[in-house]
From TrEMBL:
Full protein name: DUF427 domain-containing protein
Any matching Pfam family: NTP_transf_9
Domain DUF427, first and last residues per copy: 14-104
Length: 113
């Protein structure tokens, strides 16, 4: 049993970095895990993948599986390992396969519009 909940994130969501919109979707998922802040996952097809470069970083979550990380390349900077995806998630969270999440920061915004 896991304390992870995944539901459709209501409304339209965007991810922005370096002044550019990297993704916009009405099909985002919200993943809640225990007391952690919810994380919004964007369908890969709704993200401008040419701005993302896969890195060598891989992290492992006992509840979710292995996450592949991506850096985001903008006109002015590269945001190292600022996005991640579970390419082969654990069966309990299979619905986030082919989705990407982003690390919110001063230079990267994930917001409902």
């Amino acid at each position: 049993m896991t304390d992870i909940t995944i539901r459709k994130a209501e409304g339209t969501w965007v991810v922005r970095a370096g002044g550019a919109v990297l993704g916009e979707t009405k099909n985002a998922l919200e993943l809640s895990e225990g007391a952690l802040a919810p994380v919004i996952y964007f369908p890969r097809g709704d993200v401008a993948m040419p701005f993302l470069d896969k890195t060598d970083q891989v992290t492992t979550s006992p509840k979710k599986g292995e996450a592949t990380h991506y850096s985001i390349v903008t006109k002015s900077t590269t945001l190292e390992n600022a996005a991640w995806s579970y390419e082969d998630p654990k069966p309990e969270i299979a619905q986030i396969k082919d989705y990407l999440a982003f690390a919110r920061s001063d230079t990267l915004a994930v917001e409902r519009v």
